[in-house]
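Quick start: read one record
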Amino acid sequence: MAGYRLLTYASDNGPRAGVAIGDDVFDAARLTGYAGDATVLGMLDDWAAARERLARAALAPATGSGRPIAGTRLAAPVLWPSAIYCAGANYSDHAAEMARASNRAPEPDPHSLGLKLWHFLKATRSTLAADGDTIRISGVSKTMDWEVELAVVIGLAAKDVMLDKALDHVAGYTIANDLSARDMGRRAQVSDMSPFKFDWVGHKNFDGSCPLGPWIVPAQDIPDPQTLAIKLWVNDVIKQDSNTSQMIFTVAEQIAHLSSRISLQPGDVILTGTPAGVGAARPEFLKPGDVVKLAIERIGTLTNRMA
């Protein structure tokens, strides 16, 4: 486990940045003695200096100044990102299972065709949910699907970054569930051949559609994001069980590509794709009362109940 984890917790005066060390949570600004560390976004805006303050402070937190994690209400770790970028079809095992489900031949590696990765966007304030939150799916979709994803949190602004420097812009990593309303992704009464068939807002954007957390593990504690076990359970039954080595386009490739199109800002989040085992390939979908647990090696677990 990392030396410390960065989070947002619910204090008596509203959400504040916290630092988890062992089993305790410490108020970040009190721990570092720097008022600008009161929010995670504030720290990310000053990440080059903030990570040094955090590393020093985490070595010797003041005795008795923390609170148990078990009794602390957490929010999504970043409030609020300016953007949530989501990678489409970015795991080889997931691409293969969806090809089988659609009776299509497996597609070649996009690299061999000179293709670039594509991303879509989720809204930020309305879609984010925290560890332990209940997500309402009744009336939203009859085919609600799960998707465990490694989430990248940007710490240093990135524009036209070189591939070998891309990971230098990462503050840390967390876990996301890219909940997907499968039956809302295609517009009824519009031809399947029409370029206007797809509805990405209906498919991917609804209240609570991006559970994120429980915390951010600093990038220095995950030197290689392409070697992490990644799993998801529904009601304690394993559904997704893979490894980030199955990504078609690596984290570094995604950052470099996105930054060639738009400036990535501190606090921006990149969801890097989901592995095989989604409900659409079975087919099997979430229902009210289901408990979904996600886990990524070296980060932790994220759990939500559907309602």
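Residues 5-71 form one domain.
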